[in-house]
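Bug report

Summary: structure tokens for Response regulator transcription factor differ between web form and batch submission.
Environment: batch mode, default settings.
Steps: 1) Submit the sequence below via batch. 2) Compare with the web form result.

Sequence submitted:
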Amino acid sequence: MRPHLALIEDDPDFALMCRTYLEREGFTVTWAMDARAGKAVMHDGGIDLVVLDLGLPDGSGLELLRALRSTSRLPVIVVSGRGDETDRVAGLEIGADDYLVKPFSQRELVARIGAVLRRCRPPELPAVLDVGTLRVDTAARQASGTGVLLNLRPKEYALLEALARSPGRVFSAEQLLELIWGASWQQSATVVEHVYRLRGKLSRLPAPAPRITTVRGYGYRLDP
């Protein structure tokens, strides 16, 4: 699958040059020419990495990066004509994964994008998760307990898989929203509703069955 990049850059000539080269190198590129459009592109979903210019006509790229980092770990490479150490350090401290000073070669940009994507790629995870009598087959996207198959909706399955990957670990509602829905700005009631439905389905498994425990003031955990 072609990695999907968001290019947030106000210079149309530079953006066209970058977009043309990146698409020739196998990327899909969505261009936004200001902070408002860039924010919309990033929150639409499906973006694998952001190439972000700091000098935008309707706001600071650093402020856009700061807002993004409050809800997401989406990889970001800052590209800027500001090469001072202070600017580079500020960008990296706010959460940029890399910082590239203009002018630069398109080959270097492609190499930096590839390196960041490799670093951010999740590690290989086990295909089958066993938590007590619960078995979660991540390849088939199915879960069962003592041989009884659970009839789960997609988000219910995703919630169960997330909890089963770290049994005993407490996840906050915000963490679960980010992991499963990709956005912590949604209402936490979404998580409450899905936990309620999933608990009902787990309760119908033969005993002993894993259970989702509410840790008051913190979140939820899966206990074997």
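Above is the batch result. After comparison, the two runs are identical; trailing whitespace caused the diff. The chain has two domains: 4-120, 128-223. The chain is about 40% helix and 25% strand.
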